[in-house]
Write a structure and sequence with these properties.
Length: 280
Amino acid sequence: MSRKALIVVVIIVLALGFGGYKFYTTQINGISGLKIVSNPPTNIFLNDKSLGYTPYDDKQPPGEYILKLVPDETASSVASWQGKIILAPTILTYVRRDLGSSELTSSGEIVSMETINSSDAQIAVFSQPDAAVFVFDGQEKGSTPYLLRDVVPGEHDVAITSPGFNGRTVRVSVKSGYKVTVNFQLALSSSSEATSSAVPAGTVNETVSKEPAKPYVVIKDTPTGFLRVRNNPSTSALELVQIKPAEKYTFLEEKNGWYKITYDVGKEGWIAARYADKVD
């Protein structure tokens, strides 16, 4: 087994410590099931309506909601979380969050199910960060986002890994005629946090502290608090460096939803255009 493969296996085994989840449907006609688990326990707000504390396992009318998990004031070192969920009739949506001191150190998954126009069974996997390795029942399938078709009905382990992040695994139960969707968020590993604070990224910061000549781009806020610069305009391309919101970089060219920038002296790379504003 190669060193790379060994690292993936170790991460998956650690991720199994988070526990599995058996997906099921609620039997009450027209009502959606909602299960929420968090560590530590938090206040739950669904469209700003208080539902009490986690863990929560109850039913709600179908629809689109903004879910907020807010720690008590005594948990000052724990960050809140907010996200959009869609509750489908007669289907259970499962939300699990492990909250850290910031968005970067928090993780979790949202698992939901929907009917499809075939007798096929499918699993769709999304992740933050993107281009994470998707592992299905111990076998590597590809990079996220990923749609797995022709899944054998029954229980399966769905896992993702990404260098510098803690992997996660959930167990889902799929049925013919349904698609199970798993949205993962990974937390930075403790070693990556230490490395990121020690990385000589100051060279980049010193470069961008000066106003670049037009045209240039201004980095927007991102879900992770940083933006990846890659060597090619693709989410599967090699990551060169991470840059921060509000920083400015010289614009070079645009291709298929990507901007090419100069991120340091003599160094160029590509960023997702949706996370930057171009200034001409």
